[in-house]
Amino acid sequence: MSEQATARVSHPHQPGWFDLVSVMIEGMLDNAGEEAEGFLNNVGGSLAARYPLAEARTVQDLEREMNLQLARFSWGFTQLQPLENAILIQHHALPQGDSKVGAERWQLAMSAVLAGVYSQWLQAQGGSAAVPVTFEKNDGNTLHYRYQ
Questions:
Q1: Sorting pLDDT into bands at 50, 70 and 90, what band is 113?
Q2: Alpha-carbon torsion (59, 113, 115, 89), positive or negative
Q3: How sure is the predictor about 147, in pLDDT bands with cuts at 50, 70 and 90?
Q4: What is the DSSP string of the chain?
Q5: H-run or E-run covering 92
Q6: Contact residues for 22 (Cβ-Cβ < 8 A; gap 6+)
Q7: pTM for the whole structure
Q8: In this model, does residue 47 exceed pLDDT 90?
Q9: Rounded Cα distance, 19 and 93, in Å
Q10: What is the C-alpha end-to-end distance of the chain, expressed in Å?
Q11: Helix orientation angle between 35-50 and 17-32, rounded to the nearest 10 degrees
């Protein structure tokens, strides 16, 4: 296998794309402050609309469909815990940012994107736009959300 072919196999994305995203996120966080969260949330919603879920009849179906889409992007996986009047969402194995964006800032940005993704997917499954997906905490390994 040629050196160029080996590079393509070990690097599935075109060179520069992750750097571009990283620089854009860093710039948004530096320049837009709290407004960046709303923008990134909308970006997540738009992304989820481009990659809709198949119809889910159960929470287990919904979790499987979400994980199939998240796997497309290598963005980790989710676990859903239904409660009487809410769904708890745990997002595991979030990919790490690069060395240029600190882990805390990367996770802050991705938590906003994922809140938009989950919100859009739940609305498309019949959920109300008036019911928010709220980011609750980051325990270092898992992002926790509540749909209520």
A1: very high
A2: positive
A3: very high
A4: --HHHHHHHH--S-TTHHHHHHHHHHHHHHHHTTHHHHHHHHHHHHHHHHSPPPP-SSHHHHHHHHHHHHHHTT--EEEEEE-SS-EEEEEE-PPP--TTS-HHHHHHHHHHHHHHHHHHHHHHTT--TTS-EEEEEE-SSEEEEEE-
A5: strand 87-92
A6: 97, 98, 100, 101
A7: 0.86
A8: yes
A9: 20
A10: 53
A11: 140
Letter for the amino acid at 73?
F
- The structure tokens 């109300």 sit at 128
Contact 133, 122 (CB under 8 A): yes
Q: What band does 69 get if pLDDT is binned at 50, 70 and 90?
A: very high
- Arithmetic mean of pLDDT, 40-53: 97
pLDDT for the residue numbered 14: 60
Structure tokens at 22: 């990283």
Q: Comparing C-alpha atoms, which of 99, 103, 88, 111 is closest to residue 37? A: 111
| Alpha carbon distance 27, 39 (integer Å) | 13
